[in-house]
Specification:
Strand order of the largest sheet: 1-28-27-26
Strand content: over 45%
CATH class: Mainly Beta
Structural class: mainly beta
CATH architecture: 7 Propeller
Largest sheet: 4 strands, antiparallel
Radius of gyration: 23 Å
Number of strands: 28
Low-confidence stretches: 1-27, 336-346
Mean pLDDT: 88
Number of domains: 1
CATH superfamily: Peptidase/esterase 'gauge' domain
Shape: globular
Helix content: 10-25%
Oligomer: single chain
Number of helices: 3
Length: about 350
């Protein structure tokens, strides 16, 4: 430790000096991503979508079998590691969310053809609607790191506390679309006397409607542990825009067009789709993800929608790969500014080593 600490201090000083000298330039540099095709489990004439990714790099998604006309939830670290998760006994299952320990939220048809909200954990599916009877329809949309889940059950928000399921009666109808590790649920609800969904936050037994971007219709899609919420809302001019709700303020993430925000990580980075293109919003700038693909991959992909982002900045979603619908994972690559900092640090380490040898 006595030898390493002075070297680390030298690296810190060099990095700080380099960062101060090039801060303005680094702020303007676009991030870069390499994109991997998630494939279709080897099934011909099939398609896939990626829906969520955790910090360990596990990816949840769905493969649509073009031969049998069925779909199946999948989980794995990437194309070569994806595996099908099966169903509750019916023909279809679909993944909608993922937590840090690899539990998957979604829905599945049972043997009778009923759509059930399900949670994949410990190598098997659990039917979250089991206490409500065999004919109830629903979906689980998200699961947090404690194993709590939310979704919809017979038109009302489903809340699973890790042991038992119950309904949250928010307005006339509602649906929970995400929840954070504090158990805060967000989604959309149709309030009494209303006919359109509005974004809500449910916390400590109380639901609160979020403001809009000037229009009436909207929905909250995701929430992080800091309580920042993303989703979509109509503007006064009738455009559907992605939003970020943070610190009591609602911010539009686009000036116009049609878009939605689907996920937000703990760094406040947002992903979604805008005018049929996947986007990344970070540090106040919205990027078309197609423009961030590494140059040697240009032309292979049309990235349509970004569905999930982890704290490392890796993004999953779906797009067209040589014209075929495929799930993708986009992994950030080091930016030029980062390489400059790394080289500066290595230079300090080399100089320190030479001084030690001279002494």
């Amino acid at each position: 430790m006595k030898l390493i600490e002075p070297l680390l201090q030298g690296v810190t000083v060099a990095i700080a000096a380099t960062a101060l000298g090039g801060a303005a330039q680094a702020a303007e540099e676009a991030p870069r991503y390499r994109v991997q095709n998630l494939g279709t489990l080897g099934l011909p004439r099939s398609a896939s979508v990626g829906v969520d990714i955790n910090d360990a790099g596990l990816i949840a998604g769905t493969v649509l079998d073009g031969t049998s006309r069925t779909r199946q939830a999948v989980l794995g670290p990437g194309r070569d590691g994806l595996r099908g998760l099966g169903t509750l006994g019916g023909r279809w299952s679909e993944a909608t969310g993922l937590n840090a320990r690899g539990d998957v939220a979604g829905w599945s048809l049972d043997a009778a053809g009923n759509q059930r909200p399900v949670l994949w954990s410990g190598g098997r599916w659990t039917d979250l609607a089991a206490p409500f009877g065999s004919f109830v329809q629903g979906v689980a949309n998200a699961v947090n790191d404690a194993g709590q889940a939310t979704g919809q059950l017979s038109g009302h928000t489903l809340y699973f506390d890790g042991t038992a399921s119950r309904e949250l009666r928010i307005g006339g109808t509602s649906e929970g679309l995400d929840l954070n590790n504090r158990g805060v649920v967000v989604g959309g609800a149709v309030m009494p006397g209303d006919v359109v969904r509005r974004p809500f936050v449910w916390e400590d037994g109380r639901a609160t409607l979020l403001p809009s971007l000037g229009g009436t219709f909207g929905q909250a899609q995701a929430v992080n542990d800091a309580g920042q919420v993303v989703g979509y809302s109509y503007s006064a001019g009738g455009e559907l825009l992605p939003f970020l709700y943070s610190g009591g303020a609602m911010t539009a993430l686009a000036d116009g067009g049609f878009g939605q925000a689907f996920d937000i990580n703990e760094r406040g980075w947002v992903v979604g789709e805008q005018d049929l293109a996947a986007f990344l919003w970070r540090e106040g700038t919205r990027w078309d993800l197609n423009t961030l693909v590494a140059p040697d991959q240009a032309g292979r992909w049309t990235l349509l929608s970004a569905q999930g982002i982890n704290d490392g900045g890796a993004i999953v979603g779906y797009g067209l790969y040589h014209g075929a619908l495929r799930g993708f994972v986009a992994t950030p690559v080091p930016e030029p500014g980062q390489w400059a900092l790394l080289l500066a640090g290595l230079g300090v380490l080399g100089a320190a080593a030479r001084r030690r040898r001279a002494r």
